[in-house]
Design goal:
about 500 residues; 8-stranded mixed beta sheet; 7-stranded mixed beta sheet; 14 helices
């Protein structure tokens, strides 16, 4: 009797197991499967063997059945290439500085292709020029400012970040911030920001050139005058929490320190891009501009505090001359290329779109990559650190006759074959010059437009150049890509 009960219990358990195994089948298949079992007169032993066979078949089915391929991933609309219209610029200005700084903004701002807003402390009379729309900043009187001797306007300037985001502009991937004396190379900004995912949290900029300024602020803070970028995903979160940060950081001096501190609380660090230039220096920028890093030029700041970058011009005229090159080939502007004339023992350093230096003798490339100290500290004589910079320097001879012969950009002519840029000799003093370049008055440079994709932007390589074998009053230089194992040296 007990044996029969155990047999029935095993049989019921087996039937339950069969039902569990049949769950992987369709309903119709399940019904047929169960009817088939009922018609069979199976004892527990036979049923066990049948279940083992079915289990084996089921495993083989899972192993060898080819599932339908997954549906292709439909790219997001934001996967389209980054353009100028995906960037919104927010420029901090004031009622007092706006009239004299507008010429700088007109160099890079275009109503047809660029989205920008200027934030002022007061209403200004509307103009008919092609300047960015003016927005009056919101009231900041409720926020404390306790830095002794500082400017309370730092709160208003810092809050530009929140106010431009709160406008809710459509299709924004990046917000870029700067001052009204900052000039941007927009096309280079587009190429640079395209390296990064705007849906992730990015805070991109550069520190000051001045060691002393970085000690006072932070080596990991983007200085606002040089410009910095924040991805739209980070900017939306930042705008929601920034007012609370303004209350906590009342003791800080500047606007960029407040932005940096709040981003730090969000857990975001600075991504360094050396193409942003705060220009915390005075005097001549020749040494910096003639030895620019491989990173593309993104911005220049403090143009009112330095000498005109071209001789015999006003500051505005000089920067307009540079932008003649920017508008033709922005990626190549200021890119340093060095070539050698072995026959005449000359070294030629080309800062495209700006200036060419011709040295007598063999100058090693690593030495030419160092900036010549043609500028002065931002703050003079206060501390030893004030005269230190964030890069290595080489001395610039005080005696003009010991300096290289310099040729400054005169004009640029693009054609179907490429781009011709023309440079004329700058004479400062009658000096004894090597015979090879004694009569040299101009240099013509041929190059193709520099078009770098994202991968090339991540790992740029300096270009090479060749000098025409013979010259007298005019020299011709051809800029080209270097060979795979080509060395930039006199005796390669």
């Amino acid at each position: 009797m007990s044996q029969n009960k155990q047999t029935k219990r095993r049989f019921c358990l087996s039937k339950r197991t069969v039902r569990q195994l049949s769950l992987g089948l369709s309903r119709r298949s399940q019904s047929l499967f169960l009817k088939m079992l009922k018609t069979l007169n199976l004892n527990p032993s036979r049923l066990k063997n049948l279940l083992l066979i079915l289990s084996l078949l089921f495993i083989l089915y899972l192993l060898f059945y080819h599932h339908a391929p997954p549906s292709p991933i439909i790219p997001r609309a934001t996967d389209a290439p980054l353009t100028r219209r995906h960037i919104v610029f927010a420029i901090a200005s004031s009622f007092q500085s706006w009239p004299r700084r507008k010429p700088y903004l007109r160099l890079w701002y275009s109503p047809e292709s660029t989205r920008a807003f200027a934030f002022l402390d007061r209403v200004v009379a509307p103009g008919n020029d092609s300047s960015p729309p003016v927005i009056v900043s919101g009231d900041t009187s409720r926020f404390p400012y306790t830095f002794r001797g500082g400017l309370r306007s730092a709160i208003r300037v810092a809050r530009v970040v929140k106010e431009v985001v709160d406008r809710g502009e459509e299709g924004v991937r990046w917000y870029v911030f700067g001052d009204d004396d900052t000039v941007f190379v927009v096309e280079n900004l587009v190429r640079t920001l395209a390296k990064y995912d705007h849906d992730r949290w990015f805070y991109i900029g550069s520190e000051s050139e001045s060691y002393d300024q970085n000690v006072k602020e932070s080596f990991d803070m983007a200085f606002g005058g040089g410009g910095f970028a924040i991805s739209h995903s980070l900017a939306k979160v930042f705008s929601r929490v920034f007012d609370s940060c303004l209350i906590r950081y009342s003791h800080l001096y500047g606007s960029d320190a407040r932005v940096f501190s709040c981003l730090a609380e969000l857990g975001v660090g600075l991504t360094h891009e050396p193409g942003f230039h705060q220009v915390d220096m005075r005097g001549s920028l020749f040494g910096m501009l003639s030895s620019h890093p491989l990173s593309p030029l993104l911005s220049l700041h403090h143009l009112d505090a330095v000498e005109p970058i071209f001789p015999n011009m006003s500051r505005t005229q000089a920067i307009e001359r540079l932008f003649e090159a920017v508008n033709v080939d922005p990626a190549r502007v200021l890119q340093q290329t060095v070539c050698y004339d072995r026959l005449n023992s000359l070294t030629v350093s080309v800062a495209w779109g700006y200036a060419i230096q011709v040295f007598n003798g063999n100058q090693f490339l690593p030495d030419l990559l160092l900036m010549q100290k043609t500028f002065m500290p931002w703050k003079r004589g206060v501390t030893v650190d004030a005269s230190r910079y964030m890069f290595n320097l080489r001395e610039y001879p005080k005696d003009p006759c010991k300096r290289p012969v310099v040729f400054f950009l005169e004009s640029i002519v693009p054609d179907k074959s490429g781009i011709w840029s023309y440079y004329t000799r700058h004479k400062v003093k009658e000096c004894v010059i090597p015979n090879a370049i004694k009569n040299l008055n101009g240099i013509r440079v041929f190059s193709e437009k520099l078009e770098l994709d994202i991968e090339e932007m991540k790992a740029p390589r300096r270009h090479c150049c060749d000098i025409t074998p013979s010259f007298n009053e005019s020299m011709v230089i051809n800029i080209r890509q270097c060979g795979i194992d080509e060395l930039i040296s006199m005796h390669s």
